[in-house]
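# step 3/5: fold
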Amino acid sequence: EQLVESGGGFVQPGESLTLSCAASGFRFDGYAVGWFRRAPGKEPEAVSCVFSAADHTYYAGAVKGRFTISRDSAKNMVILQMNGLQPEDTATYYCAAVTWHYENMCINGPFDKMNFVGKGTPVRVSS
């Protein structure tokens, strides 16, 4: 049972990336799934979450209006579409999942205590 992220890379300011998170060995049903990021020298911060009930979502203020999170239940994946990337978005992005009982952890952490945490995918935004 694991999470596998993909889609990170190097882009210029204003460009877009799509991050994918695939679950292996379990279903995302009944889990809140989200992305958090860790920039060098900074504490990890929640980026976005999609909750188990009615696909309610959360976005950090810094990404609201630019990032969109979605579930693809057929493929058992969660997608983070990132538009208008800026240098301050540079970080390693981690996908994580937690059962609905503790879904606030998707926003408040501690992220490393969530049921599943991926290995991360790097995003670098620079001109």
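# step 4/5: annotate
The first strand starts at residue 2 and ends at 6.
# step 5/5: archive (pending)
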